[in-house]
Amino acid sequence: IAAAVDIWARGPAALPPPRQPRTPVLPVEGERNVLITSALPYVNNVPHLGNIIGCVLSADTFARYCRLRNWNTLFVCGTDEYGTATETRALEEGLSPQELCDRYHAVHADVYTWFCISFDHFGRTTTPQQTRIAQDIFQRLLARGFLLQDTMEQLRCESCRRYLADRFVEGTCPFCGYAEARGDQCDKCGKLINAVELKNPQCKLCRGTPVVTPTQHLFLDLPKLEGQLEAWLERTWAAGDWTANARHITRTWLRDGLKPRCITRDLTWGTPVPLDGFRDKVFYVWFDAPIGYLSITANYTDQWERWWKNPQQ
């Protein structure tokens, strides 16, 4: 506080010279290096004030603060473009998923430019880098025995002749009775749902009644990781950096025991699964989308690993 008062009294001349911008921004030995991301906005709609206020503006404020402190700062973001919400919107607008993503990515970029959001790079998840990194992480999980195969019952619409991803199904929530629950989550009670558990399910495309059909999928073997995860959580919780809400939700998941989590879907719009017997499937967006932070950085600089695999700096 005394130092701040002293500099304030001496005026702008007492400030250190501003950092000269480098392109690309890379970690510097011996300096404070700050990597900032904000939640990737979903591409299937025009962004609204909630998108700005909820994540982008606060991240931008922090990025500006870090730069004023002369910290070496990289701020990246981009549009999240895979998943069934994109397919649904593309069908509504009579476009291919790629055409829809191209249209709305440009809209998002223009809006954030208008708001003067200070991204160093604003990218997207439908890129060759996303495919390469996601498939590499998948292959590493496979080689280390953290994946398993299992049969999953999935709703299939015979009229549309396709398996229905979670968001292509609507019905009554089996937990609270809400009549407009999606096939992945109930927006009223917040519980995660397996689409086959819905009562009175309907195909969102044709309003027909889908039938339960078995299909092979790949799962992330989360129970195998539970012990390591708990030990890591205890260490990080002790550091005091987690909010009470985040701790509560995580403890609830661990209390109930982690379950294997499906990471593939019977779709065509997504990152292809590079494994024989599953090449007609894509990665589930909840496996794929978080990798977007890495791939967007990789599209900014081919030295992206200096940011993401560099805990000492």
TrEMBL record:
EC class name: ligase
Gene Ontology cellular component list: aminoacyl-tRNA synthetase multienzyme complex; cytosol
GO-annotated molecular function: ATP binding; methionine-tRNA ligase activity
Enzyme Commission number(s) from the entry: 6.1.1.10
Domain called Methionyl/Leucyl tRNA synthetase: residue spans: 34-311
InterPro entries membership: aa-tRNA-synth_I_CS (IPR001412), Met-tRNA_ligase_1 (IPR023458), Met-tRNA_synth (IPR014758), Methionyl/Leucyl_tRNA_Synth (IPR015413), MetRS_core (IPR033911), MetRS_Zn (IPR029038), Rossmann-like_a/b/a_fold (IPR014729)
Signal peptide: none
Catalytic activity annotation: tRNA(Met) + L-methionine + ATP = L-methionyl-tRNA(Met) + AMP + diphosphate
Localization: Cytoplasm
Keyword vocabulary terms for this entry: Aminoacyl-tRNA synthetase, ATP-binding, Cytoplasm, Ligase, Nucleotide-binding, Protein biosynthesis
SUPFAM superfamilies assigned: Methionyl-tRNA synthetase (MetRS), Zn-domain (SSF57770), Nucleotidylyl transferase (SSF52374)
Gene3D superfamilies: HUPs (3.40.50.620), Methionyl-tRNA synthetase, Zn-domain (2.20.28.20)
GO BP term (any one): methionyl-tRNA aminoacylation
Entry similarity comment: Belongs to the class-I aminoacyl-tRNA synthetase family.
Listed name of the protein: Methionine--tRNA ligase, cytoplasmic
